[in-house]
Specification:
By secondary structure, this protein is of the alpha/beta class. The protein has 3 domains: about 70 residues, Winged helix-like DNA-binding domain superfamily/Winged helix DNA-binding domain (Arc Repressor Mutant, subunit A), CATH 1.10.10; about 130 residues, ATPase, nucleotide binding domain (Nucleotidyltransferase, domain 5, 2-Layer Sandwich), CATH 3.30.420; about 160 residues, 2-Layer Sandwich (Nucleotidyltransferase, domain 5), CATH 3.30.420.40. The chain contains 13 helices and 15 strands. It holds the Pfam family MarR_2.
Length: about 400
């Protein structure tokens, strides 16, 4: 593999070894900034630089205290992981849920600086929730000694479909109180920094390829099972938005033609069969008293037969819906997130059965199915990654594609 030949500014010697080394170092730094910790072999593939060049650059950047190395496991083998050291730039991620908000701060090296969580009333209005989030962000900046006005920006996660032509939440969101509101404008005013808004499932998908164990995965589907059900799609290494930005609304895919009426107005949607609110309602009716998601998890892990039956039915329905996606885009991996993640195989096993039953056999056999390791923080981590990736994309040194030499 040959090293990249850079295009240097006017007045410099394009053939000088020092210019080449500086630009190759910058290429490595920008790649790490966009993809978090990578092994030296992964860096070589991502940058198009030779393994020997990567090794020398890593040694140089380590001596400059710009990166750090640590042993990691890659594909079952020991390898040397490389990550950026702390830099001055910091971004925020804010995830609004149906009954909570989470705020995180992180460096471009994708290392978490601060994290906070606060409960909100169910059905909270945007104006009140934004005030709470602004207060949480100010407190996070105070704890870390960061000037809020110097943040790179804030990524914002919202649980509902977003029309990316105007950044408006549309009908069908878990938070109907937020529909039609200029959320971006209100957040910019409240936070005093630039904001980027996206659907929470999209951000969950982005978190998997940024913070999770799927950093080299090019095609991935992330499914969040909560009060609503949504999915985020990574295609060719980037989020897929479609024509309007309204993608991944798998919760409103029809599973049962004669099923219950969904909040979207259709009948038999996946959400009516497999959302946490549906599970809670079914079990509460049988129990004769209110129960929580935590109760569902506790009962399932203790082997309660009624709870396991509800989870099994929901999982098979989810697998059916995922099979349609798998048949359409043939992703490398499908990752399940949301508050039910602690269930592990209790939920994954029926999802796998539904996937195997309805997907093309070869596709089903070669689609990895995992529970997200990022837990409830996935969407907030994806929100901060939205800002960090945009920041890195605007500062990256433009070099000829390594495949075109």
């Amino acid at each position: 593999m040959n090293d990249v030949t850079p295009t240097t500014p006017e007045g410099t010697n394009p053939g000088s070894q020092s210019a080449l080394r500086r630009l190759n170092e910058q290429r490595v730094l920008d790649t790490l900034g966009a993809q978090s910790t990578l092994t030296q072999a992964e860096l070589a593939r991502a940058t198009g630089l030779s393994s020997a060049t990567i090794s020398n650059i890593v040694k140089s950047l380590t001596a400059q205290h710009r990166v750090q190395t640590a042993p990691v496991t890659s594909s079952g083998r020991r390898a040397q992981g490389v990550a950026l050291l702390d830099v001055a730039d910091v971004a925020a991620g804010i995830d609004f849920g149906r009954s909570n908000v989470r705020v995180v701060l992180a460096h471009p090296g994708f290392r978490l600086l601060d994290e906070s969580f606060r409960s909100l009333s169910i059905g909270h209005c945007a104006e009140e929730s934004i005030v709470v989030a602004a207060q949480m962000l100010a407190e996070a900046c105070a704890r870390t000694g960061i000037k809020q006005q110097e943040l790179l920006g804030a990524g914002i996660g919202v649980p509902g479909p977003i029309d990316h032509r105007n950044n408006m939440v549309i009908h069908g969101a878990i938070l109907p109180e937020w529909v039609g509101i200029d959320i971006a404008g209100q957040l910019r005013s409240a936070l005093g920094i630039a904001v980027m808004i996206d659907n929470d499932a999209n951000l969950g998908a982005l978190a998997q390829i940024t913070w999770g164990e799927h950093q080299t995965c090019e095609d991935l589907c992330f499914l969040k099972i909560g009060t609503g059900i949504g999915s985020g799609l990574i295609l060719n290494g980037a989020l897929y938005y479609g024509h309007l930005g309204i993608t991944g609304e798998i919760g409103h895919a029809t599973i049962f033609d004669q099923g219950a009426i969904c909040r979207c107005g259709n009948r038999g949607c996946l959400e009516t069969a497999a959302s946490t609110s549906t599970m809670i309602e079914l079990l509460a009716q049988a129990e004769g008293r209110p129960i929580s998601v935590e109760d569902v998890i506790e009962r399932a892990l203790s082997g309660d037969s009624a709870t396991l039956r509800v989870i099994d039915d929901a999982g098979v329905a989810v697998g059916h819906a995922l099979a349609n996606i798998a048949n359409l885009i043939n992703p490398e991996a499908m990752v399940i997130g949301g508050p039910l993640a602690p269930l592990g195989d209790f939920l994954l096993a029926p999802i796998r059965r539904g996937l195997n039953r309805h997907a093309i056999p070869l596709v089903a056999e070669n689609t990895a199915l995992h529970m997200s390791m990022l837990g409830d923080r996935a969407e907030a981590l994806g929100a901060v990654a939205l800002i960090l990736r945009k920041y890195r994309s605007t500062t990256i040194v433009q070099l000829p594609d390594a495949t075109n030499r």
